[in-house]
Amino acid sequence: MPEGTIVLVTDRPDRSAALARALGSVGRCEVVGTDERWTRDAALIGVVADLTLTRPEASTCLRALEKRYRGRALPVIGLLRRTSTESLRHAKTLGATVCLPAYVPPDTVVAALFNQLEAFGPVGEAAVVQGVARAGEALTSLLAEARAGSRIRMQTVEAGLTPILTAVREGGLARWLDTVWTHDDATYQHCLLVAGLAAQFALHLRFRRDDQQRFVRAALVHDVGKARIPLPILNKPGRLSPDEAAVMRTHAALGHDILKAGGECDAFTLDVVRHHHEFLDGSGYPDRLAGAAVSDGVRLMTICDIYAALTERRPYKTPMPMREAMTILQSMDGKLEAGLVQSFGRALAGERP
Ligand SMILES: [Fe+2]
Ligand SMILES: [Fe+2]
Q: Model's pTM, two decimal places?
C-alpha cells in the first residue's frame, strides 16, 4: 500500500463518511471542504473531489488545486453528480485525471484510485531515475574538467538542469533524496543533494522558469572547487585538523576562479560558488562578507548547502534526522536569514509559500 495522504474534498461531508472510510485503505484520508487551505501536502498522493461542479466555490477550489499541482503526477478523481459530456469536460478542465458518477460504490472509487496510483507512480520514479542519471553525468564531466585543469564548458552542466527540476516536481523531493543518499562518493552525493533541495526551494518560492534553472545550476556546481582539494582531505572521515580545514576552505575561491577562467559562467553562479560559506554576521569565508553584502542567492543556497551537509549519508555515521537538521538551521539565527530558514522548512514539508 502506498504511504501518503488522500484528500477528499467534498461539499457534503455527511454523505462522504463511507467514502472517507474506504479511502482509508489506500492511505490516510483527510476530508476537507471547498474553503479550506491545505498546507501539509508533502505526502499527498491523490485527491478525490466529491463536488457539485456547477457551484462557483467548487470551480475555485479545483482551479486552485490544479494550479498548485501543475506538472506533478497526481491522480485527481472527479465524482460527477451529473454525467453529461459537458460536466465531464468541465471536470477535466478543472484537473480531474479520471471521472466517475458520484453514485458508484466507495469500493469502485478506491479501485479507480489504485489504478491511477499505479499509472502515475512509475512516472515519478522514472523521472527521479532519469534526473539523478543526467545530473550525475553533468556533475562527473564538470568535476573531471575541473580536476584536469581544462576549461569548464557550462554546456556540460546545462543538460542536467531540467531533469533535476522535472524529477523533483514529478517524483517528489523525498524520492530524490532517497536515491541520491545511496551514492557513496561524498562530493557527488553532496552536490546532488544540494541541487535537489535547491530545485524544491525554487519550486516552492515559485521562481520563474529561467530563475529555477539559474538556481539549480548554481547548486549543482557550487562545490566545483573541491575537484582541486587533495582526496585524503576531501574524503577524510571525521574531523579535519586546523591545517586540513584551511586547505578545504580554499575550495570556494578555487571554484570561483576555475569557472571564471572558463569564461562561460554567469554572474549569479560565480557569486554563489565563491560565497556559499559566507554568513550574515561576517564569520564566513573567503571574503568575510556581512549583512547586505551577502546576496539573496547566496542566502538561499547557504541554507540548502548546510541542510545537505547535515543530512548526508556516510557509511561511518548515523544519519541525522531531518527534524534535527532543521533545528540546527533555526539555531543559526544571525548567520542565516531566519525568514528564509522558515520558508525552507515549509518547502521541505511541501507546503505552499
Ligand atoms: Fe562548499
Ligand atoms: Fe557544499
A: 0.70
